[in-house]
Design brief:
The complex is a heterodimer.
Chain A (H helix, E strand, L loop, with lengths): L3 E11 L4 H11 L4 E8 L5 E11 H12 L4 E7 L4 E12 L6 H7 L4 E6 L3 E8 L1 H11 L6 E4 L3 E4 L5 H8 L1
Antiparallel strand pairs in A: 1-3, 1-4, 2-3, 5-7, 5-8, 5-9, 6-7
Chain B lengths: L1 H13 L2 E4 H11 L4 E4 L6 H9 L5 E4 L3 H15 L3 E5 L3 H4 L2 H9 L4 E7 L15 H5 L5 E5 L5 H13 L5 E7 H5 L1 E4 L18 H13 L3 E5 L2 H4 L3 H11 L3 E3 L14 E4 L6 H7 L4 E5 L5 H4 L10 E6 L13 E4 L2 H8 L9 H23 L8 H12 L4 E4 L3 H9 L8 E3 L9 H11 L5 E6 H4 L6 H7 L4 E6 L4 H10 L14 H7 L3 E5 L2 H13 L4 E6 L23
Parallel strand pairs in B: 2-3, 2-4, 4-5, 5-7, 6-7, 9-10, 9-12, 10-11, 12-13, 13-14, 15-16, 15-17, 17-18, 18-20, 19-20
Antiparallel strand pairs in B: 1-8
Helix pairs in contact in B: 2-3, 2-8, 4-6, 4-19, 12-15, 13-16, 17-18, 17-24
Classes of the chains: A alpha+beta, B alpha/beta.
């Protein structure tokens, strides 16, 4: 069996209703779990960008991206390995205010990109961003305090290699 | 009539007029040259049916007896004409009943434009009467789909639908139109769609790849071609024939590629695949260059991929980039329309001669004749064989008929033994393997090619899955010939039970009704034959009829289809018995 690895899949699409369904159906039909997903506008007006993270063998990701690419409203689809991207996730932790002045928590916040964004009488909220592993570590550390809520965004990634969407659009117009 | 339609459309194009969304749908179809559609009315599509009534002199609507029948009839029409089949259905169950036909069209690359009614936009998502999320349901089985909630969107969306259905690798599209969009008004102008910025219908041909393919072909000692439906869809039959005749390469068809090259052509070495011919399957693992043209290496073609043509360099001509390296790793991929690719390659290929190599095919064909074919066509046992029935149809039609087959043993007999002289003469459900396909598909095929004979060859199981379409034949008087090969079994599953499940015939025995009486109940002349001496006359009588005709042939109950590549086996391990 070929080894599975993390792939970040970037899909540029028209901004129409139903595209998410069409894309997720391609993963579904091959029984692939989507580890993370993010949708946003892209660098091109009226073009949306989906970022998926999946863990699959390399031969499979090529086929999946080919099938994503052939959907009518997909402008371009690409896959990249971890070393080909600069990526990032954001997480938020809601904790009870009784721990606000806990020194250990203060220590945790010294970790690179974490800070308190809201403080109320009852709770406070920490926002942290970084690699998935950084956030996992932060999660493990804060968990013993009884997380009131936790949420993490999907991965967003900028690729080192070029994705020539504008050129693709020019060619088909 | 066509020209007068055109002038009307052109005039309207200059001066917008306010019409209803429902009328706009009809006008869009007329502008696309549609004059025939299949469907079934219901609440959410009534405004469109009201317009179909008004426009009935220009656009003929065929009422099927079930929406699945409408979808398959439209497929039959599309497969023989190359034009998109048009289907109407209402929301909810009407729409879901189309799904099997749409899925079948998707996997067999058949252009369909399906238009479904939907509940009014203010009711969407409220679980309204006959509401279903047909966009969500149909997404994985359509080339494209779209929901219209405002009348103004109709012309542009329908224009896109036609372009997408027909262009590149064809496929089904579904347009879901809410009832308020059908009632709403718009300023109607229609402009055909010619491009979509996110969609490249045909990849740009890379001449370097063509040259690389030609180099491999020129140096091959034992080249072998497997062609598929891409040759037919790409209207490349003439280019394909010129290519194989210049290179003298033995060529085999997939099930869906049948009839692109005449059965009797000396370079046609038969069909590949699970129940294909012996020589092309065995020699797939002996060739040095395998040239795949407009086919997608389906698992029923390749058998075990681990042992499929490993010794060969593989060249793959296809229009769909997603098919390259999907199942079989290629050495040279030539992307593009095969008509263009095969035209371009002619300048780079040398005239070939492969006498000894072709002789190997002939030798193995001889072996297949001795073990399988002779016994099928001229059986010595008492019971009738499916092969001899198909052969009698060949003799009576001279190979000029369109053969529409369903799914199962009879389908494989039809594919193996039917003779085809002309392209677009074999219509069958390949990828999806949809039992119940043939009867409605034959209706559509006959309507698409009324001047040709259309013979549906169906098993007793599949026939009963869409038998209600006899009502469509009654109402339209469409002159299809229906041959039911009745072995009172779900024969293919029974064969597998015999071979791999120790003859435990779980739910494959069929207690059947009196098929002749049923056909007669629908006003269709009908006959039953069970003895060899009556077969010839029965088929002659059927073919002589100018109207629809039903013939039941009682077949040997436990006959098997051979050769056969058991699941997981290599193509070269094909069994003759």
């Amino acid at each position: 069996m070929e080894e599975k690895q993390n792939f970040t899949v970037s899909v540029y699409t028209e901004n129409n209703v139903g595209i998410l369904n069409r894309l997720s159906a391609i993963f579904l039909k091959r029984h692939i779990n989507i580890e993370s997903m993010n949708v946003s506008k892209s660098e091109i007006d009226h073009v949306h960008r989906f970022t998926f993270v999946v863990i699959v063998p390399k031969t499979l990701i090529r086929k999946v991206v080919g099938q994503l690419e052939k959907q009518i409203e997909v402008i371009g689809a690409f896959y990249h390995t971890e070393d080909e991207i600069i990526y990032h996730e954001t997480a938020m932790f809601k904790l009870s205010s009784e721990f606000l002045y806990d020194e250990k928590i203060q220590d945790k916040l010294k970790f690179r990109r974490a800070h308190i964004v809201t403080i109320t009488e009852r709770y406070f909220v920490i926002e942290a961003s970084g690699l998935k592993e950084d956030i996992d570590r932060m999660y493990d550390k804060l968990k013993p305090y009884g997380l009131l809520q936790f949420v993490r965004s999907g991965r967003i990634a900028i690729t080192r290699p070029k994705m020539a969407i504008s050129e693709l659009l020019k060619e088909t117009i | 009539m066509e020209t007068s339609n055109k002038t009307i459309v052109e005039e309207k194009a200059l001066k917008p007029v306010k019409i209803s969304g429902a009328e706009a749908v009809i006008k869009c179809l007329l502008a696309e040259g549609v004059d025939l559609a299949y469907g079934y009315p219901g609440g959410a599509i009534m405004p469109i049916y009201d317009e179909l009534y008004k426009y009935q002199d220009k656009l003929h609507h065929v009422l099927t007896r079930h929406e699945q029948g409408a979808a398959h009839a439209a497929q039959g029409f599309a497969r023989v004409t190359g034009k998109p089949g048009i289907v109407f259905a209402t929301s909810g169950p009407g729409a879901t009943n189309l799904v099997t036909g749409i899925a079948d069209a998707q996997i067999d690359s058949t252009p369909l434009v399906c238009i479904t009614g939907q509940v009014s936009s203010h009711l969407l998502g409220s679980d309204a009467f006959q509401e279903t999320d047909i966009i969500g349901i149909s997404t994985p089985v359509t080339k494209w789909n779209h929901q219209i909630t405002r009348a103004e969107e109709i012309p542009e969306v329908i224009a896109k639908a036609f372009y997408i259905a027909k262009s590149g690798r064809p496929g089904p599209v579904l347009i879901d139109i809410t009832k308020d969009a059908q009632f709403g008004e718009l300023d109607f102008t229609y402009k055909k769609c010619e491009k979509i910025r996110s969609y490249r219908a045909v990849p740009k041909l890379d001449i370097e790849k063509v040259k690389a393919a030609a180099d491999l072909i020129n140096s091959a000692k034992k080249p072998f071609i497997v062609w598929g439906q891409g040759v037919i869809i790409g209207q490349a039959e003439a280019e394909f024939k010129a290519f194989i005749e210049k290179t003298d390469i033995p060529s085999a068809s997939t099930a869906l590629g049948l009839s692109a090259l005449a059965t009797k052509h000396p370079l046609n070495v038969g069909m590949v695949g699970m129940h294909g011919n012996y020589a092309p399957n065995v020699l797939t693992n002996d060739c040095d260059v395998l040239i795949a043209i407009g086919m997608r290496f389906d698992d029923r073609v390749t058998g075990n991929l681990e042992t499929y043509a490993k010794q060969a360099k593989v060249i793959h001509f296809d229009i769909d980039p997603a098919e390259i390296d999907k199942n079989v790793k290629t050495d040279v991929a030539v992307l593009g329309n095969v008509k263009e690719s095969l035209t371009e390659i002619m300048a780079f290929i040398n005239k070939g001669q492969h006498v000894a190599w072709l002789q190997e095919f002939a030798k193995l064909y001889q072996k297949e004749c001795e073990v399988v074919i002779n016994d099928q066509l001229n059986p010595t046992k008492e019971g009738l064989t499916m092969g001899e029935v198909v052969n009698k149809i060949n003799q009576e039609t001279n190979g000029d008929a369109i053969i529409v087959s369903d799914v199962g043993q009879h389908q494989m007999f039809a594919c193996r033994y039917a003779n085809f002289n002309k392209t677009r003469s074999s219509v069958t459900s390949g990828g999806l393997g949809t039992m119940g396909f043939a009867l409605p598909a034959a209706i559509g095929a006959k309507m698409g090619m009324p001047e040709r004979e259309v013979v549906a060859v169906i098993g007793d199981g599949g026939y009963q899955m869409t038998i209600q379409e006899l009502g469509t034949i009654l109402q339209t008087q469409v002159a299809v010939k229906i041959v039911v090969l009745n072995n009172s079994f779900l024969g293919m599953v029974r064969q597998w039970q015999e071979l791999f499940f120790d003859k435990r015939y779980a739910s494959t025995v069929m207690k059947n009704p009196d098929f002749v009486k049923i056909a007669e109940g629908y006003g269709i002349e009908a006959n039953r034959v069970s003895k060899r001496e009556n077969l010839d006359g029965a088929i002659k009588t059927m073919m002589a009829s100018k109207e629809a005709y039903f013939l039941e042939v009682v077949i040997e109950q436990e006959d098997n289809i051979f050769p056969m590549i058991p699941t997981g086996a290599s193509v070269s391990d094909i069994r003759l018995s």
